[in-house]
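Following up on my earlier message about 2-acetamido-2-deoxy-beta-D-glucopyranose. Here are the inputs again, as you asked, copied directly from the submission form:
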Amino acid sequence: MGLLLLLCVGPWVEGGKVLVTPVEGSHWLSMKKVVQDLHARGHQAVVLAPEVNMHIKEEDFFTLKTYAFPYTQDELQSFFVHLSHLVLEPEHFLMHFFKIMTIMKNTSVIHQRSCRELVHNKTVIQYLNESSFDVVLTDPVIPCGTVLAEYLSVPAVYFLRYIPCELDFEGTQCPSPSSYIPRLLTRNSDHMTFLERVKNMLYPLALKYICHISFAPYASLASELLQREVSVTDIFRWRIAKDAE
Ligand SMILES: *[C@@H]1O[C@H](CO)[C@@H](O)[C@H](O)[C@H]1NC(C)=O
Ligand SMILES: *[C@@H]1O[C@H](CO)[C@@H](O)[C@H](O)[C@H]1NC(C)=O
Ligand SMILES: *[C@@H]1O[C@H](CO)[C@@H](O)[C@H](O)[C@H]1NC(C)=O
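Thanks, got it. Here's what our run produced:
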């Protein structure tokens, strides 16, 4: 709800143009509700999605703009089957961890290739640039929309409760002490025993590798597009820099 408030207090309160860059699957299902609400409040939304996708379909409350995707529907489907098996199989943490890493690696490669083709597609970029969006509403779990927003010089609003590896905390220099802030996948609460605190410190170390393979390629892509050195943390700092302007 805080997000909606934020979107309503801008200078374009009369009805703004929002570029939405969602992420496939359950992420999109919750974001779709926000897009529907934005439409109800008189904003105009363009949803940007790969032409091959599972859930992001045309609706009357937004304009769907698709771009070429370097994989077939079958390839995408088989990836999702792998992923759902993984989520449903109860397994030892370590086994689970290695499987997650393989799948994350594969997913990352798919998304990175797709993002690269998107930002290098002159037709699509020209259309987006000429559309003069007021804001990009993006799910930064795959930071393609974030890079795109920076490339188009449009401020971004991030739609995600939790960015892995505390990159948002790091990017915004927000304190996040391990003793009090429960980490991703630990199932800890904010009241932890000593052993839970140890677990709370160890899990993020394991996730660091995943974050590196998932996010580093976007930093290089951004460096290439913006022609300056961009780090992974920079990617998660951008919205603040924009807010400060
Ligand atoms: C750019 O994207 C459009 C729309 O998806 C597609 O028709 C076109 O083939 C793409 N161009 C390149 C060079 O990939
Ligand atoms: C990951 O990708 C490799 C090579 O493309 C493929 O052989 C493998 O089956 C994939 N694994 C999963 C779990 O998707
Ligand atoms: C968008 O258009 C402006 C004005 O024509 C241009 O200066 C800028 O380089 C364009 N940006 C991109 C990402 O193409």
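One observation from looking it over: The radius of gyration is 19 Å. Hope that helps, and feel free to reply on this thread.
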